[in-house]
C-alpha cells in the first residue's frame, strides 16, 4: 500500500527538501492521496540538543490541555507554529505546533532518570496520544521532525514548506491505505524519539507484534500496523542494545531450513534469535525504511513481496520503491541494486553503505 | 484393518418392477449399479452413490429410489458422523479433503432473518402489471456531476466512463470452462443475451462457440492468467480481475491435468494434460498499489474502453479492502460471500473462511458512502443468492446487482450432489466427458436459464410494487425497507437495519 | 511544489520517430505511442524515459520501440508482437502475460519479469530479481524464452508451466554469489530452466529435479545463447563453453496426490 523513498548524505551535509519531494512525486502512481509525509534529520541545528515535538491539535482545547501537561513534565525552551501554506488539496484539519523541550533539572539530577531520559520522553508521548483527545505527537526526536497529512506527498510538502528545510537525511512516503481511514496521524513516517519509519505493504503479524510490544510497555494506539516497526527497533536497539543487523535478523529471520544449513556457532545464534524474538518477527509483504539520527536502514520481508531499490553516489545513499525515483534526483549513481529479501541495507553517517547478508 | 466407513446413501431397487434394461448402469457415472450378465446378478455399490438421482429419474419403470443410509456411527453431538468420516479419510490418504458447492455448516443466514416492507394505506403499492416498472441497472463508474455545454443546443461535456447495461440486476457468475461444460456455458451465454444481462467466463477463457455472445460476456483475469491475451481482453464486454472467491478465500485452485482436454487446452492456451494451477495470490499483486497497476495495465491494453471489475471474497476486513479496490481504479467491486459455490475446494476452506455476504454488502456500501466515493464503482454481490427475495434484500442492503452461480446450475439440472470436482457430473454440467455432456442440451438449458431470470425479474417487479417503488434504483441501499427478525443488536448495527416492529 | 506533467515532444530522426518522455505521465506517453503505431509508424525511439509504466502494453504490431532510460512497471504487458529494446534498466513485471514479441534489456531487471508469458523472448543482460519467469507457459508452437546474463533471485521459474529460462551468471553479486536463489522452480510442471553453473539439489523447490542435458538442449542453448551474445556483443563460444544444469519438472501434475474425496455424512 504505498511508495517510499529516502536519502542519507554520508558526510552529514544538509540538503534542501527539494530532492526528496521530487523522488516522492516520481512514484505518484503508487499513492491514492490519502496520506503523504516526510521526515528530515538535522533540520533544527539551533535547537539540536532539545527534543523537538511536532504536535497536531484538533482544536485549541486540545492544545491547552497538552500544554498544561508539557509544562508539568518538561521545560519548554521554545514553541511556535510550524510554518504552513494553505493548499487547495488539503483541508485544514489540525493546528500544527512545535515545541523544543528538555527534561527539567529536577528530574535530570535524579539518578534513576539519568539513564532513562528517553523512556521519560516516550512516556510523555504515549500520555499525550493516549489521554488527550484531539492531540497527537507526530514526532519527538532531537534535531528532526515529521511533516505529514492526508493528501498527496507533493501537496503535503507544499503545505509544510518542506523545501525550505535542510536535512542530512530525508525519508518520504505516499500512502494508499486499505486498513484504516486516512487521517493526519495515520500518514507516514511514524516516529518515536529518533526513530522514524516509512512502510509499504502490510504487517500481517500486527496482532502478535502489538501484544509483544504492549507487554514491554509500548502503547499501540495509531490504528495502523506500521507503528510496531518503530517500536520494535526502539525496543531491540535502544533499550536492549542489539545492533541494527541483529535486530534485522530478529525481524526478518532466515527460514528454519536455511538456519539448519548454517555452521556452528552461527546456527545457535540464529536459532536463539528466532526462538527469543518469535513474536517480534514481521510477517506479510513489506518494505520499510527506518531511520535514526545517524542511520538509514532499508528492509524487505523474508520472501520479498514488495519492491525496494538501493543506490549510492559519492555523497549519498538512496532507497526507494522504484529505480526511477532515484534516477530522477541523482545522475551520478555509482552503484544501484535490489537488496535481497530480509537483508537490511544499512547506511550510516561516515561509513560505506552495506547490505548485511543474513539470508 | 477393517474399513469401518458406513455409506451415506442406500440404493433401493424394486426388484419386481425392474426389467433389467441396464439403463441405470449406463446413466450412473459413479459406478453404483453393476450387473453380472453371466451370473445374472445385480450388485449396488452404495458407498459410491452421491444422491444425484440421475438413475432414479432415468429408470423407465421408476424402480429406483435413493435413501439416506440408516447405518451410522453411534450418535455423538461433538464427534459427528462427518467429523469421524473426515478423520478416517485423512488417516487413510494423508490428503486434503476436497469438496464442492457452498458452505455446509449451519451458520445463521441473514437473508432468512431479514424481512421486506410493504405498503399499506399511507403510501400506495403499485401494480406492476399495469404500471411501468424498471429494473435496468448500469454497472460501472459514474461521474460526480454532469456538466453540459448549452450554447448551441445541449451537449454532454462530462465524459461518461464505460458501463454495462443490465436489463435485470442479475448476472451469471464466473464459472470456468473446464469446471463446467461448454453446453453449460452456451446455455448461460444465450440466456444472458436474450434477457439483456451478462455472464462471466470464469478463468478458463472464452470458447470460440461463445464469440457470438461476447458482447454479453465478462472475461476474467485470474491468477493463473489462463487464456489472457490482448484479443481476449478486447473481445468481452468487461474484464474481471479475480482476487478471491467466497468458497475458498485466500487460496488458489488446481484444474487436474486429466480435465485439460484438447478443447480446454485450446481455450486456456496451455498444453493438454498438464495441471492448470491458479496460485493463491496473483504473482504481480502483493499490495493494493499492485492491484492498481494491474487494473491500469488492463485499461491501457484495452484503451480504456472496458470496465474493469475486481472480485474478492467477503472477509473480515472487506470494507476497507473494497474501498481500496475502488480507489485503485476498479469500476465495480464483486463481493463473494462465504456461502458461495465452487467446483472444487478444500472442505476446511469452504466451511471455515470468510463472512456472510449480507454483512459484507452492508459494510462495503456504508464505507464507500462515508468516504464519498460510492459513485466511483458499483457493488456486485454473490454467494448463496437463492431467490428473487435474496436479490431484493441484497440490493436493499446496498448492492447494485448480483451474480448467481449455483442457482443458475440448478436451473440447468444440477441437483447439488457436491461432486463437481470429480468431473463426472451425471447431469452433463460439471464435466468434460463427451457422453455425459450430451445430457445437457444448450437450447433447453438456455430456455431454462432465461426463464429463471424472467421469473425472478417478474418477482422483483412485484416486490418493488409492494414497496411502492417503480424502479430498482430506489431500492438500492434502502435499508429502511428491511427489518431484522431474531438478530442481535451488533448484527442489526452491521446490517444497518432496524428490528421488526421498530 | 507540484511537478507539472508535460506533453510529450515528438520529432523525427531518420527512420525513427523520437518521443521525448521527460516529465510525461504514462497515460499521455502511451497515447502518443498508440497513435503513432496506428498511423503506421514502425520505429519509435523514446528518450528520457524514467519509470513510465505500461509502455507497449497490449500492443499488437511488429513495430520496434527503443527506450532510453528506466522502463517502468509492466513493460510490454499483454503485448502481441512488438520488439522493445531498453537501453537502461526495467522495473517490475516486464513482459507480464506477453503473447508474442521481444524485450531486450541492456541493464538489469527486478521482480516477476516474464510473469505468465506465453510466447516471445526476453533477454536481460544484467541481474534480475525475485520470481522471474513465474508461471511461464507455452502453447503449441509458442514457446517463450527468457535469457538472463547475470543472476536471478529466489523463486525463479516458480509454478513454471512451459517455456525455457536460461541463466548465464556471467557476473555475480557480492552479497549472493549463487547463480539463482532458493526455492528454485517450486511447483514447476512444464518447461525447463538452464543454469550455467552447478546447482545444489537442496535449493530446488517442490516438484523440481535436475536432469542431464541432451543433444537437443545443447542445440537450443547454442541458438538462444548465440542470439543473446550477438545482441550484447559477447563471445558465444566462451559463454557456451561451460557446464549447464537443467532443471525440469518431476511431473506435469505436481499436486496430484494432495487431495482426497470428501465423504460427508
Write the layout of secondary structure elements.
The complex is a heterotrimer of chains A (359), B (502) and C (265).
Chain A: E1 2-9, E2 15-16, H1 18-26, E3 36-41, E4 51-57, H2 60-73, E5 75-81, E6 95-102, H3 105-108, H4 111-114, H5 117-131, E7 135-139, E8 144-149, H6 153-160, E9 166-167, E10 169-175, E11 190-192, E12 195-201, H7 206-214, H8 227-239, H9 244-251, H10 256-260, H11 266-276, E13 286-291, E14 295-300, E15 309-312, E16 316-320, H12 323-329, E17 335-337, E18 345-348, E19 354-355
Helix pairs in contact in A: 1-12, 7-8
Chain B: E1 9-13, H1 23-27, E2 33-36, E3 41-44, H2 54-58, E4 64-68, H3 81-93, E5 96-99, E6 114-116, E7 137-139, E8 148-149, E9 155-156, E10 164-166, E11 170-172, H4 182-195, E12 199-200, E13 217-221, H5 230-235, E14 238-242, E15 253-255, H6 262-268, E16 276-278, H7 288-301, E17 308-313, H8 318-327, E18 332-336, E19 345-346, H9 347-352, H10 357-370, E20 378-382, H11 388-397, E21 401-404, H12 406-411, H13 434-437, H14 442-466, E22 482-484, H15 489-495, E23 498-499
Parallel strand pairs in B: 11-21, 12-13, 13-14, 14-17, 17-18, 18-20, 20-21, 22-23
Antiparallel strand pairs in B: 1-4, 2-3, 5-19, 6-22, 7-10, 8-9, 15-16
Helix pairs in contact in B: 4-14, 8-10, 11-14
Chain C: E1 9-13, E2 16-20, H1 26-38, E3 43-50, E4 64-70, E5 80-87, E6 100-105, E7 121-124, E8 145-148, E9 161-167, E10 190-195, E11 208-211, H2 215-231, H3 236-240, E12 245-249, E13 259-261
Kindly describe this structure.
The complex is a heterotrimer of chains A (359), B (502) and C (265). Chain A is of the alpha+beta class. Chain A has one domain (2-42, 141-355): Glutamine Phosphoribosylpyrophosphate, subunit 1, domain 1 (4-Layer Sandwich), CATH 3.60.20. Chain A is built from twelve helices and 19 strands. In chain A, the strands form four sheets. A seven-stranded antiparallel sheet of chain A has the order 8-3-10-1-16-15-17, covered by helices on one side. In chain A, β15 and β16 (316-320) form a beta hairpin. Chain B is built from 15 helices and 23 strands. In chain B, the strands form eight sheets. An eight-stranded parallel sheet of chain B has the order 11-21-20-18-17-14-13-12. In chain B, strands 6-22-23 form a three-stranded mixed sheet, with helices on one face. The longest helix of chain B is centred in the C-terminal third of the chain and has 25 residues, at 442-466. Chain B is α/β, with parallel strands linked by helices and 502 residues long. In chain B, β2 and β3 (41-44) form a beta hairpin. The mean pLDDT of chain C is 94. Chain C has a domain at 108-249: 3 Solenoid (Pectate Lyase C-like). Chain C is an alpha/beta fold and 265 residues long. Classes of the chains: A alpha+beta (359), B alpha/beta (502), C alpha/beta (265). At the B-C interface, α3, β5, α5 and α7 of B face α1 and β13 of C.
Amino acid at each position: 500500500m504505498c511508495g517510499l523513498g529516502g536519502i542519507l548524505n554520508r558526510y552529514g551535509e544538509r540538503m534542501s527538501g527539494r530532492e526528496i519531494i521530487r523522488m516522492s512525486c516520481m512514484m505518484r502512481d503508487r499513492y491514492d492521496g490519502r496520506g503523504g509525509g516526510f521526515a528530515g534529520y538535522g533540520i533544527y541545528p539551533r535547537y539540536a540538543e532539545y527534543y523537538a515535538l511536532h504536535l497536531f491539535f484538533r482544536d485549541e482545547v486540545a492544545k491547552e490541555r497538552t500544554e498544561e501537561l508539557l509544562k508539568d513534565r518538561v521545560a519548554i525552551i521554545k514553541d511556535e507554529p510550524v510554518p504552513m501554506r494553505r493548499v487547495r488539496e488539503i483541508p485544514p484539519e489540525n493546528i500544527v505546533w512545535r515545541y523544543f523541550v528538555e527534561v527539567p533539572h529536577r528530574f535530570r539530577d535524579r539518578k534513576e532518570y539519568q539513564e532513562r531520559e528517553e523512556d521519560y520522553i516516550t512516556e510523555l508521548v504515549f500520555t499525550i496520544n493516549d489521554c488527550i483527545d484531539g492531540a497527537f505527537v507526530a514526532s519527538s526526536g532531537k534535531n528532526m521532525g515529521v511533516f505529514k497529512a492526508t493528501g498527496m506527498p507533493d501537496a503535503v510538502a507544499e503545505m509544510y514548506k518542506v523545501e525550505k528545510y535542510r536535512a542530512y537525511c530525508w525519508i518520504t512516503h505516499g500512502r494508499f491505505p486499505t486498513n484504516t481511514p486516512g487521517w493526519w496521524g495515520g500518514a507516514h513516517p511514524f516516529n518515536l524519539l529518533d526513530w522514524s519509519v516509512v512502510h509499504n505493504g502490510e504487517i500481517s503479524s500486527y496482532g502478535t507484534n502489538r501484544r509483544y510490544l504492549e507487554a514491554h510497555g509500548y502503547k499501540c494506539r495509531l490504528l495502523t500496523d506500521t507503528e510496531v516497526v518503530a517500536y520494535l527497533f526502539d525496543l531491540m536497539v535502544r533499550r536492549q542494545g542489539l545492533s541494527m543487523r541483529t535486530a534485522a535478523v530478529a525481524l526478518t529471520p532466515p527460514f528454519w531450513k536455511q538456519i539448519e544449513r548454517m555452521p556452528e556457532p552461527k546456527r545457535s545464534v540464529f536459532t536463539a534469535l528466532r526462538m527469543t524474538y518469535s513474536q517480534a518477527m514481521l510477517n506479510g509483504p513489506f518494505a520499510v525504511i527506518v531511520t535514526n539520527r545517524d542511520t538509514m536502514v532499508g528492509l524487505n520481508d523474508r520472501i520479498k513481496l514488495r519492491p525496494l531499490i538501493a543506490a549510492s553516489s559519492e555523497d549519498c545513499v538512496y532507497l526507494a520503491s522504484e529505480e526511477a525515483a532515484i534516477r530522477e534526483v541523482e545522475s551520478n549513481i555509482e552503484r544501484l541494486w535490489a537488496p535481497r529479501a530480509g537483508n537490511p541495507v544499512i547506511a550510516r553517517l561516515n561509513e560505506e553503505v552495506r547490505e548485511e547478508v543474513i539470508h | 484393518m477393517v474399513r469401518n466407513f458406513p455409506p451415506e446413501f442406500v440404493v433401493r431397487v424394486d426388484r419386481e418392477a425392474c426389467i433389467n434394461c441396464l439403463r441405470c448402469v449406463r446413466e450412473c457415472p459413479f459406478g453404483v449399479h453393476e450387473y453380472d450378465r453371466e451370473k445374472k446378478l445385480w450388485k449396488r455399490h452404495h458407498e459410491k452413490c452421491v444422491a444425484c438421482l440421475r438413475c432414479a429419474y432415468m429408470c423407465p419403470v421408476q424402480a429406483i429410489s435413493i435413501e439416506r443410509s440408516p447405518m451410522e456411527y453411534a450418535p455423538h453431538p461433538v464427534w459427528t458422523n462427518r467429523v469421524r468420516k473426515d478423520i478416517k479419510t485423512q488417516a487413510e490418504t494423508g490428503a486434503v479433503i476436497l469438496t464442492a458447492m457452498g458452505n455446509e455448516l449451519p451458520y445463521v443466514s441473514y437473508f432468512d432473518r431479514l424481512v421486506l416492507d410493504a405498503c399499506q394505506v399511507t403510501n400506495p403499492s403499485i401494480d406492476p402489471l399495469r404500471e411501468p416498472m424498471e429494473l435496468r441497472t448500469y454497472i460501472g463508474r459514474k461521474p460526480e456531476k454532469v456538466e453540459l455545454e448549452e450554447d448551441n443546443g445541449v451537449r454532454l461535456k462530462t465524459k461518461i466512463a464505460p458501463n454495462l447495461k443490465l436489463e435485470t440486476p442479475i448476472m451469471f457468475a464466473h464459472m470456468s470452462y473446464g469446471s463446467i461444460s461448454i453446453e453449460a456455458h452456451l446455455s448461460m451465454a444465450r440466456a444472458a443475451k436474450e434477457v439483456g444481462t451478462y455472464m462471466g467466463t470464469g478463468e478458463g477463457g472464452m470458447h470460440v462457440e461463445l464469440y457470438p455472445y461476447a458482447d454479453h460476456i465478462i472475461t476474467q483475469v485470474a491468477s493463473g492468467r489462463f487464456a489472457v491475451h490482448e484479443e481476449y481482453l478486447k473481445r468481452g464486454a468487461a474484464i474481471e480481475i479475480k482476487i478471491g472467491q467466497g468458497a475458498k478465500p485466500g487460496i488458489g485452485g488446481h484444474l487436474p491435468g486429466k480435465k485439460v482436454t484438447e478443447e480446454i487446452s485450446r481455450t486456456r492456451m496451455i498444453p493438454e494434460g498438464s495441471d492448470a494451477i491458479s496460485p493463491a495470490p496473483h504473482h504481480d499483486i502483493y499490495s493494493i498499489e499492485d492491484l492498481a497497476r494491474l487494473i491500469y495495465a488492463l485499461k491501457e491494453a484495452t484503451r480504456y474502453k472496458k470496465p474493469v471489475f475486481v472480485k474478492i471474497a467477503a472477509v473480515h476486513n472487506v470494507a476497507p479492502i473494497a474501498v481500496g479496490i475502488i480507489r485503485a481504479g476498479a469500476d465495480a467491486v464483486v463481493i463473494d460471500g462465504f456461502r458461495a459455490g465452487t467446483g472444487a475446494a478444500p472442505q476446511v476452506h469452504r466451511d471455515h473462511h470468510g463472512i456472510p455476504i449480507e454483512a459484507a454488502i452492508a459494510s462495503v456500501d456504508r464505507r464507500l458512502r462515508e468516504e464519498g466515493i460510492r459513485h466511483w464503482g458499483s457493488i456486485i454481490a454473490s454467494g448463496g443468492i437463492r431467490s428473487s427475495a435474496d436479490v431484493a434484500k441484497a440490493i436493499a442492503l446496498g448492492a447494485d446487482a448480483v451474480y448467481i452461480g449455483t442457482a443458475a446450475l440448478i436451473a440447468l439440472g444440477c441437483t447439488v450432489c457436491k461432486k463437481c470436482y470429480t468431473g463426472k457430473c451425471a447431469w452433463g454440467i460439471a464435466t468434460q466427458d463427451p457422453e455425459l455432456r450430451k445430457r445437457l442440451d444448450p437450447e433447453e438449458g438456455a430456455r431454462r436459464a432465461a426463464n429463471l431470470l424472467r421469473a425472478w425479474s417478474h418477482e422483483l417487479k412485484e416486490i418493488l410494487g409492494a414497496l411502492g417503488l417503480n424502479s430498482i434504483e430506489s431500492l438500492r441501499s434502502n435499508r429502511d425497507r428491511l427489518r431484522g427478525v431474531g438478530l442481535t443488536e451488533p448484527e442489526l448495527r452491521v446490517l444497518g437495519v432496524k428490528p421488526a416492529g421498530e | 511544489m507540484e511537478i507539472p506533467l508535460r506533453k510529450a515532444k515528438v520529432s523525427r530522426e531518420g527512420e525513427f520517430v523520437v518521443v521525448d518522455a521527460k516529465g510525461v505521465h504514462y497515460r499521455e506517453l502511451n497515447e502518443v505511442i498508440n497513435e503513432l503505431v496506428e498511423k503506421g509508424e514502425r520505429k519509435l525511439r523514446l528518450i528520457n524515459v524514467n519509470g513510465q509504466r505500461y509502455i507497449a502494453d497490449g500492443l499488437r504490431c511488429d513495430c520496434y520501440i527503443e527506450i532510453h532510460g528506466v522502463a517502468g512497471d509492466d513493460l510490454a504487458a499483454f503485448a502481441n508482437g512488438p520488439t522493445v529494446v531498453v537501453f537502461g534498466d526495467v522495473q517490475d513485471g516486464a513482459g507480464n502475460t506477453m503473447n508474442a514479441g521481444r524485450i531486450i534489456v541492456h541493464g538489469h531487471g527486478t521482480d516477476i519479469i516474464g510473469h505468465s508469458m506465453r510466447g516471445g523472448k526476453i533477454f536481460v543482460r544484467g541481474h534480475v530479481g525475485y520470481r522471474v519467469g513465474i508461471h511461464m507457459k507455452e502453447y503449441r508452437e509458442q514457446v517463450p524464452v527468457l535469457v538472463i546474463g547475470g543472476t536471478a533471485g529466489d523463486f525463479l521459474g516458480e509454478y513454471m508451466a512451459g517455456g525455457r529460462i536460461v541463466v548465464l551468471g556471467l557476473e555475480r553479486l557480492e552479497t549472493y554469489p549463487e547463480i539463482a536463489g532458493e526455492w528454485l522452480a517450486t511447483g514447476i510442471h512444464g518447461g525447463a530452466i538452464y543454469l550455467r553453473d552447478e546447482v545444489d539439489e537442496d535449493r530446488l523447490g517442490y516438484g523440481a529435479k535436475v536432469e542431464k542435458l541432451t543433444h537437443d538442449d545443447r542445440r537450443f542453448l547454442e541458438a538462444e545463447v548465440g542470439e543473446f551474445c550477438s545482441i550484447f556483443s559477447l563471445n558465444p563460444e566462451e559463454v557456451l563453453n561451460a557446464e549447464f544444469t537443467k532443471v525440469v519438472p518431476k511431473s506435469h501434475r505436481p499436486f496430484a496426490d494432495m487431495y482426497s474425496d470428501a465423504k460427508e455424512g
